[in-house]
Amino acid sequence: MSGLYLHIPFCKQKCNYCDFHFSVSLRNKEALVNAIEKELVLRKNEFNEQIHTIYLGGGTPSILTIDELKGIFKCIHSNYSVAKNAEISLEANPDDLSKSYIKGLKKLGINRLSIGVQSFFDSDLHFMNRAHTSYEAIKAIKDAQDVGVENITIDLIYGIPGLSQAKWQKNLDTFLALDIPHLSSYALTVEPKTVLAHQIKSKKIEALDDELAKAHFDVLLSFMKGNEYLHYELSNFAKEGFLSKHNTSYWQGKSYLGIGPSAHSYNQKSRSWNVANNVAYINTLKEGIRPNKVEYLTMSMRYNEYIMTGLRTMWGISLDTIKKNFGQKYSSYLVKNIQKYLQKGALELVNKNRVVVKTEKFFLVDGIISDLFWVE
Ligand code: SF4
Q: Which of 91, 169, 174, 290 has a CB 3.0–4.6 Å from the CB of 114, allowing a cystine?
Protein backbone atom coordinates (compact mmCIF):
# COMPACT_ATOMS: atom_id res chain seq x y z
CA MET A 1 0.00 0.00 0.00
CA SER A 2 1.44 3.38 -0.97
CA GLY A 3 0.62 6.74 0.49
CA LEU A 4 0.92 10.25 -0.80
CA TYR A 5 1.59 13.08 1.65
CA LEU A 6 1.30 16.75 0.67
CA HIS A 7 2.72 19.41 2.95
CA ILE A 8 0.90 22.76 2.83
CA PRO A 9 3.29 25.16 4.56
CA PHE A 10 1.07 28.08 5.57
CA CYS A 11 -0.67 29.04 8.82
CA LYS A 12 -2.71 32.05 9.92
CA GLN A 13 -0.62 32.46 13.04
CA LYS A 14 2.13 30.71 14.94
CA CYS A 15 1.04 28.38 17.74
CA ASN A 16 3.50 28.77 20.59
CA TYR A 17 4.57 25.09 20.72
CA CYS A 18 4.90 24.39 17.00
CA ASP A 19 8.15 23.54 15.22
CA PHE A 20 6.67 22.36 11.91
CA HIS A 21 7.66 24.06 8.69
CA PHE A 22 5.20 26.82 7.74
CA SER A 23 4.98 30.51 6.90
CA VAL A 24 2.40 33.01 8.15
CA SER A 25 2.85 35.09 5.00
CA LEU A 26 0.55 33.93 2.22
CA ARG A 27 2.41 35.93 -0.42
CA ASN A 28 3.77 32.83 -2.15
CA LYS A 29 0.67 30.67 -1.84
CA GLU A 30 -0.17 30.56 -5.55
CA ALA A 31 3.46 29.94 -6.56
CA LEU A 32 3.72 27.22 -3.93
CA VAL A 33 0.61 25.44 -5.20
CA ASN A 34 2.11 25.54 -8.71
CA ALA A 35 5.39 24.13 -7.39
CA ILE A 36 3.54 21.30 -5.60
CA GLU A 37 1.85 20.40 -8.87
CA LYS A 38 5.24 20.48 -10.62
CA GLU A 39 6.72 18.13 -8.04
CA LEU A 40 3.74 15.79 -8.38
CA VAL A 41 4.36 15.57 -12.14
CA LEU A 42 8.13 15.27 -11.74
CA ARG A 43 7.83 12.28 -9.42
CA LYS A 44 4.91 10.48 -11.01
CA ASN A 45 6.99 7.43 -11.91
CA GLU A 46 8.66 6.98 -8.51
CA PHE A 47 6.02 4.50 -7.37
CA ASN A 48 4.49 2.01 -9.72
CA GLU A 49 1.89 1.02 -7.15
CA GLN A 50 -1.58 2.39 -6.70
CA ILE A 51 -2.03 5.16 -4.15
CA HIS A 52 -4.24 3.95 -1.29
CA THR A 53 -4.04 6.95 1.00
CA ILE A 54 -3.60 10.67 0.45
CA TYR A 55 -2.93 12.99 3.37
CA LEU A 56 -2.79 16.78 3.21
CA GLY A 57 -0.97 18.03 6.28
CA GLY A 58 0.95 21.08 7.29
CA GLY A 59 0.91 23.81 8.16
CA THR A 60 -2.75 24.28 7.53
CA PRO A 61 -4.12 22.72 4.34
CA SER A 62 -7.53 24.28 4.99
CA ILE A 63 -5.92 27.64 4.23
CA LEU A 64 -6.15 26.66 0.55
CA THR A 65 -9.25 27.63 -1.42
CA ILE A 66 -11.41 24.93 -2.97
CA ASP A 67 -10.13 26.02 -6.39
CA GLU A 68 -6.51 25.63 -5.30
CA LEU A 69 -7.27 22.17 -3.91
CA LYS A 70 -9.17 21.31 -7.08
CA GLY A 71 -6.03 22.04 -9.13
CA ILE A 72 -3.92 19.83 -6.86
CA PHE A 73 -6.38 16.92 -7.03
CA LYS A 74 -6.71 17.25 -10.79
CA CYS A 75 -2.93 16.96 -10.99
CA ILE A 76 -2.89 13.93 -8.67
CA HIS A 77 -5.57 12.09 -10.64
CA SER A 78 -3.94 12.86 -14.00
CA ASN A 79 -0.55 11.53 -12.90
CA TYR A 80 -1.19 8.80 -10.32
CA SER A 81 -3.42 5.80 -10.06
CA VAL A 82 -5.55 6.40 -6.97
CA ALA A 83 -7.50 3.45 -5.56
CA LYS A 84 -11.29 3.86 -5.73
CA ASN A 85 -11.72 3.50 -1.97
CA ALA A 86 -8.60 5.54 -1.06
CA GLU A 87 -8.60 7.26 2.31
CA ILE A 88 -8.16 10.97 1.57
CA SER A 89 -7.51 13.10 4.67
CA LEU A 90 -7.13 16.81 5.11
CA GLU A 91 -5.94 18.60 8.23
CA ALA A 92 -8.13 21.61 8.95
CA ASN A 93 -8.31 24.31 11.53
CA PRO A 94 -11.79 24.95 12.94
CA ASP A 95 -11.91 28.62 11.88
CA ASP A 96 -11.54 27.60 8.20
CA LEU A 97 -14.39 25.11 8.14
CA SER A 98 -17.67 26.60 6.92
CA LYS A 99 -20.40 24.25 5.68
CA SER A 100 -19.88 25.33 2.07
CA TYR A 101 -16.11 24.76 2.34
CA ILE A 102 -16.66 21.26 3.78
CA LYS A 103 -19.10 20.48 0.95
CA GLY A 104 -16.40 21.59 -1.51
CA LEU A 105 -13.87 19.28 0.18
CA LYS A 106 -16.29 16.37 -0.07
CA LYS A 107 -16.80 16.99 -3.77
CA LEU A 108 -13.04 16.69 -4.26
CA GLY A 109 -13.14 13.22 -2.71
CA ILE A 110 -11.77 14.18 0.71
CA ASN A 111 -13.39 11.64 3.03
CA ARG A 112 -11.54 12.18 6.30
CA LEU A 113 -11.11 15.41 8.24
CA SER A 114 -8.47 15.91 10.90
CA ILE A 115 -9.60 18.94 12.87
CA GLY A 116 -7.01 20.72 15.02
CA VAL A 117 -9.12 21.36 18.11
CA GLN A 118 -6.38 20.98 20.80
CA SER A 119 -8.70 22.06 23.66
CA PHE A 120 -12.33 23.00 24.21
CA PHE A 121 -11.24 25.78 26.62
CA ASP A 122 -10.60 29.25 25.22
CA SER A 123 -8.04 29.90 27.97
CA ASP A 124 -5.90 26.97 26.72
CA LEU A 125 -6.35 28.02 23.09
CA HIS A 126 -5.24 31.52 24.03
CA PHE A 127 -2.24 30.13 25.94
CA MET A 128 -1.16 28.14 22.86
CA ASN A 129 -1.88 31.08 20.51
CA ARG A 130 -4.32 29.06 18.45
CA ALA A 131 -6.33 31.02 15.87
CA HIS A 132 -9.75 29.57 16.78
CA THR A 133 -12.16 29.49 19.70
CA SER A 134 -13.84 26.58 21.43
CA TYR A 135 -17.19 27.65 19.91
CA GLU A 136 -15.67 27.48 16.41
CA ALA A 137 -14.23 24.03 17.13
CA ILE A 138 -17.58 22.57 18.18
CA LYS A 139 -19.36 24.27 15.28
CA ALA A 140 -16.82 22.94 12.76
CA ILE A 141 -17.27 19.37 14.02
CA LYS A 142 -21.07 19.61 13.94
CA ASP A 143 -21.01 21.22 10.49
CA ALA A 144 -18.78 18.45 9.14
CA GLN A 145 -21.16 15.84 10.58
CA ASP A 146 -24.20 17.67 9.13
CA VAL A 147 -22.56 17.70 5.72
CA GLY A 148 -22.06 13.93 6.02
CA VAL A 149 -18.37 13.56 6.83
CA GLU A 150 -18.34 10.48 9.04
CA ASN A 151 -14.62 9.95 9.32
CA ILE A 152 -13.48 12.74 11.63
CA THR A 153 -10.55 12.91 13.96
CA ILE A 154 -9.61 15.71 16.32
CA ASP A 155 -6.41 16.52 18.19
CA LEU A 156 -6.42 17.26 21.91
CA ILE A 157 -3.34 18.38 23.84
CA TYR A 158 -2.78 17.53 27.50
CA GLY A 159 -0.14 18.60 30.00
CA ILE A 160 -0.95 22.27 29.35
CA PRO A 161 0.00 24.40 32.39
CA GLY A 162 -3.17 25.17 34.34
CA LEU A 163 -5.14 22.32 32.75
CA SER A 164 -6.61 20.73 35.88
CA GLN A 165 -7.80 17.13 35.91
CA ALA A 166 -11.37 18.43 35.97
CA LYS A 167 -10.77 20.52 32.82
CA TRP A 168 -9.01 17.65 31.07
CA GLN A 169 -11.93 15.38 31.93
CA LYS A 170 -14.30 18.01 30.54
CA ASN A 171 -12.33 18.06 27.28
CA LEU A 172 -12.70 14.29 27.02
CA ASP A 173 -16.42 14.44 27.90
CA THR A 174 -16.96 17.06 25.19
CA PHE A 175 -15.09 14.88 22.68
CA LEU A 176 -17.31 11.92 23.58
CA ALA A 177 -20.53 13.93 23.43
CA LEU A 178 -19.64 15.00 19.89
CA ASP A 179 -19.58 11.35 18.77
CA ILE A 180 -16.25 11.53 16.95
CA PRO A 181 -14.74 8.18 15.90
CA HIS A 182 -11.03 9.02 16.25
CA LEU A 183 -8.83 10.99 18.63
CA SER A 184 -5.15 11.94 18.45
CA SER A 185 -3.98 13.19 21.81
CA TYR A 186 -0.48 14.43 22.59
CA ALA A 187 1.35 15.82 25.58
CA LEU A 188 2.42 19.41 25.16
CA THR A 189 6.17 19.31 24.57
CA VAL A 190 8.79 22.00 24.43
CA GLU A 191 10.63 21.96 21.11
CA PRO A 192 13.77 24.06 20.77
CA LYS A 193 13.39 27.48 19.14
CA THR A 194 9.64 27.65 19.69
CA VAL A 195 7.83 30.53 21.36
CA LEU A 196 6.98 28.16 24.20
CA ALA A 197 10.67 27.36 24.76
CA HIS A 198 11.38 31.09 24.86
CA GLN A 199 8.50 31.76 27.27
CA ILE A 200 9.85 29.12 29.64
CA LYS A 201 13.45 30.26 29.32
CA SER A 202 12.50 33.86 30.03
CA LYS A 203 10.39 32.67 32.98
CA LYS A 204 7.18 34.11 31.52
CA ILE A 205 5.66 30.73 32.24
CA GLU A 206 6.73 27.81 34.38
CA ALA A 207 8.40 24.73 32.95
CA LEU A 208 5.99 21.97 31.94
CA ASP A 209 5.11 19.43 34.60
CA ASP A 210 5.77 15.80 33.53
CA GLU A 211 3.75 14.49 36.45
CA LEU A 212 0.72 16.48 35.29
CA ALA A 213 1.08 15.12 31.76
CA LYS A 214 1.40 11.57 33.09
CA ALA A 215 -1.74 12.03 35.22
CA HIS A 216 -3.65 13.33 32.17
CA PHE A 217 -2.38 10.40 30.09
CA ASP A 218 -3.63 7.90 32.68
CA VAL A 219 -7.07 9.51 32.65
CA LEU A 220 -7.02 9.49 28.85
CA LEU A 221 -6.21 5.77 28.69
CA SER A 222 -8.92 4.64 31.05
CA PHE A 223 -11.50 7.03 29.55
CA MET A 224 -10.90 5.86 25.99
CA LYS A 225 -10.83 2.21 27.01
CA GLY A 226 -14.04 2.64 29.00
CA ASN A 227 -15.69 4.12 25.93
CA GLU A 228 -14.51 1.36 23.60
CA TYR A 229 -11.95 3.21 21.57
CA LEU A 230 -9.06 1.10 20.37
CA HIS A 231 -5.72 2.43 21.61
CA TYR A 232 -3.80 1.50 18.49
CA GLU A 233 -0.83 3.84 18.72
CA LEU A 234 0.72 5.76 21.60
CA SER A 235 -1.27 8.92 20.81
CA ASN A 236 -4.12 7.53 18.72
CA PHE A 237 -7.50 6.03 19.56
CA ALA A 238 -10.23 4.88 17.19
CA LYS A 239 -13.57 3.18 16.99
CA GLU A 240 -13.49 -0.05 14.98
CA GLY A 241 -13.23 0.76 11.28
CA PHE A 242 -11.84 4.27 11.82
CA LEU A 243 -8.11 3.64 12.31
CA SER A 244 -6.07 6.07 10.20
CA LYS A 245 -4.97 4.03 7.19
CA HIS A 246 -2.38 6.60 6.18
CA ASN A 247 -0.63 6.79 9.54
CA THR A 248 -0.91 3.05 10.08
CA SER A 249 0.99 2.60 6.81
CA TYR A 250 3.80 4.81 8.18
CA TRP A 251 3.96 2.80 11.38
CA GLN A 252 4.01 -0.46 9.47
CA GLY A 253 6.95 0.67 7.35
CA LYS A 254 5.10 1.05 4.03
CA SER A 255 6.44 3.34 1.29
CA TYR A 256 5.18 6.87 0.85
CA LEU A 257 5.82 9.87 -1.33
CA GLY A 258 6.07 13.28 0.39
CA ILE A 259 5.38 16.34 -1.74
CA GLY A 260 5.93 19.97 -0.71
CA PRO A 261 8.56 21.83 1.28
CA SER A 262 10.00 19.82 4.20
CA ALA A 263 8.02 16.71 3.20
CA HIS A 264 9.73 13.35 3.74
CA SER A 265 9.54 10.33 1.43
CA TYR A 266 10.40 6.69 2.12
CA ASN A 267 10.85 3.78 -0.27
CA GLN A 268 12.14 0.94 1.96
CA LYS A 269 15.77 1.60 0.96
CA SER A 270 16.15 5.32 1.49
CA ARG A 271 14.54 8.32 3.06
CA SER A 272 14.57 11.72 1.41
CA TRP A 273 13.34 15.13 2.41
CA ASN A 274 12.60 18.34 0.57
CA VAL A 275 14.10 21.66 1.50
CA ALA A 276 12.21 23.34 4.37
CA ASN A 277 12.09 26.74 2.71
CA ASN A 278 9.15 27.87 0.57
CA VAL A 279 11.09 30.23 -1.72
CA ALA A 280 13.92 27.75 -2.32
CA TYR A 281 11.35 25.02 -3.00
CA ILE A 282 9.45 27.19 -5.52
CA ASN A 283 12.57 28.43 -7.31
CA THR A 284 14.21 25.02 -7.62
CA LEU A 285 11.05 23.44 -8.99
CA LYS A 286 10.79 26.24 -11.55
CA GLU A 287 14.00 24.73 -12.95
CA GLY A 288 12.37 21.31 -12.98
CA ILE A 289 14.53 20.04 -10.13
CA ARG A 290 13.36 18.59 -6.83
CA PRO A 291 15.22 20.28 -3.93
CA ASN A 292 15.90 17.36 -1.66
CA LYS A 293 18.45 15.37 0.31
CA VAL A 294 18.63 11.58 0.43
CA GLU A 295 19.81 9.25 3.15
CA TYR A 296 20.35 5.57 2.35
CA LEU A 297 19.27 3.44 5.26
CA THR A 298 21.70 0.96 6.77
CA MET A 299 20.51 -2.27 8.33
CA SER A 300 20.76 -0.81 11.84
CA MET A 301 18.84 2.32 10.84
CA ARG A 302 16.03 0.17 9.47
CA TYR A 303 16.10 -2.03 12.57
CA ASN A 304 15.92 1.02 14.87
CA GLU A 305 13.08 2.45 12.84
CA TYR A 306 11.15 -0.82 13.05
CA ILE A 307 11.59 -0.87 16.85
CA MET A 308 10.62 2.78 17.17
CA THR A 309 7.44 2.72 15.12
CA GLY A 310 6.38 -0.82 16.03
CA LEU A 311 6.57 -0.54 19.81
CA ARG A 312 4.41 2.57 19.76
CA THR A 313 1.55 0.58 18.25
CA MET A 314 -0.78 -2.10 19.58
CA TRP A 315 0.75 -4.56 17.08
CA GLY A 316 4.19 -4.23 18.66
CA ILE A 317 7.22 -5.81 16.99
CA SER A 318 7.60 -9.35 15.73
CA LEU A 319 10.60 -11.50 16.69
CA ASP A 320 10.05 -13.55 13.50
CA THR A 321 10.13 -10.42 11.35
CA ILE A 322 13.32 -9.23 13.02
CA LYS A 323 15.02 -12.56 12.40
CA LYS A 324 13.80 -12.68 8.79
CA ASN A 325 14.55 -9.05 7.86
CA PHE A 326 17.60 -8.26 9.96
CA GLY A 327 19.20 -11.62 10.79
CA GLN A 328 20.33 -13.52 13.88
CA LYS A 329 22.65 -10.77 15.18
CA TYR A 330 19.80 -8.28 15.64
CA SER A 331 17.39 -10.94 16.80
CA SER A 332 19.73 -12.12 19.60
CA TYR A 333 20.47 -8.52 20.59
CA LEU A 334 16.79 -7.76 20.95
CA VAL A 335 15.89 -10.96 22.78
CA LYS A 336 18.68 -10.29 25.31
CA ASN A 337 17.66 -6.68 25.84
CA ILE A 338 13.94 -7.15 26.27
CA GLN A 339 14.36 -9.57 29.19
CA LYS A 340 14.48 -6.92 31.91
CA TYR A 341 11.36 -5.24 30.55
CA LEU A 342 9.52 -8.56 30.36
CA GLN A 343 10.48 -9.27 33.97
CA LYS A 344 9.40 -5.78 35.11
CA GLY A 345 6.09 -6.19 33.28
CA ALA A 346 6.63 -3.26 30.94
CA LEU A 347 6.72 -5.51 27.87
CA GLU A 348 4.66 -8.56 27.08
CA LEU A 349 5.45 -11.47 24.74
CA VAL A 350 2.36 -12.56 22.82
CA ASN A 351 2.29 -15.99 21.12
CA LYS A 352 6.07 -16.27 21.64
CA ASN A 353 6.50 -13.77 18.81
CA ARG A 354 4.98 -10.32 19.21
CA VAL A 355 6.54 -7.97 21.74
CA VAL A 356 4.10 -5.28 22.89
CA VAL A 357 4.21 -2.55 25.50
CA LYS A 358 1.71 -3.08 28.33
CA THR A 359 -0.95 -0.38 28.15
CA GLU A 360 -0.24 1.00 31.61
CA LYS A 361 3.45 1.40 30.72
CA PHE A 362 2.86 3.23 27.45
CA PHE A 363 3.99 6.52 28.95
CA LEU A 364 7.49 5.01 29.26
CA VAL A 365 7.62 3.68 25.71
CA ASP A 366 10.14 6.20 24.36
CA GLY A 367 12.68 5.26 27.06
CA ILE A 368 12.22 1.55 26.33
CA ILE A 369 12.62 2.15 22.59
CA SER A 370 15.88 4.05 22.95
CA ASP A 371 17.21 1.32 25.23
CA LEU A 372 16.49 -1.31 22.56
CA PHE A 373 18.13 0.66 19.74
CA TRP A 374 21.14 -0.81 18.00
CA VAL A 375 24.06 1.57 18.53
CA GLU A 376 26.92 1.27 16.02
S1 SF4 B 1 -1.78 25.52 12.99
FE2 SF4 B 1 -0.60 23.60 13.19
S3 SF4 B 1 1.16 23.83 11.84
FE4 SF4 B 1 0.27 25.87 12.10
S5 SF4 B 1 1.43 26.80 13.78
FE6 SF4 B 1 -0.36 25.84 14.68
S7 SF4 B 1 0.29 23.74 15.25
FE8 SF4 B 1 1.81 24.58 13.82
A: 91
User: Ligand 1: distance of its center to the CA of 11 in Å?
Assistant: 6
Reply yes or no on whether the pLDDT at 2 is more than 90.
no
Please tell me the distance between residue 360's alpha carbon and the centre of ligand 1 in angstroms.
30
CA of 80 from ligand 1 middle (Å) equals: 29
Q: Which atom of ligand 1 is nearest to the CA of 129?
A: 6
pLDDT tens for each residue of 137-152: 999 999 999 999 999 9
pLDDT above 90 covers what percent of the chain? Answer: 96
The pLDDT score that the predictor gives to residue 204 is: 92
Residue 295 CA to residue 345 CA, distance in Å, equals: 37
pTM above 0.70, yes or no: yes
Distances (CA, A) of 364 to 88, 214, 238, 267: 32, 10, 21, 30
**Residues 120/159, Cβ–Cβ less than 8 Å:** no
In this prediction, residue 117 carries a pLDDT of 98
Domains of the chain from N-terminus onward: 2-251 (3.80.30.20), 299-372 (1.10.10)
Instruction: Tell me the CB-side half-sphere exposure of residue 282, using CA atoms within 13 A.
Output: 13
Neighbours of 40 (CB within 10 A): 20
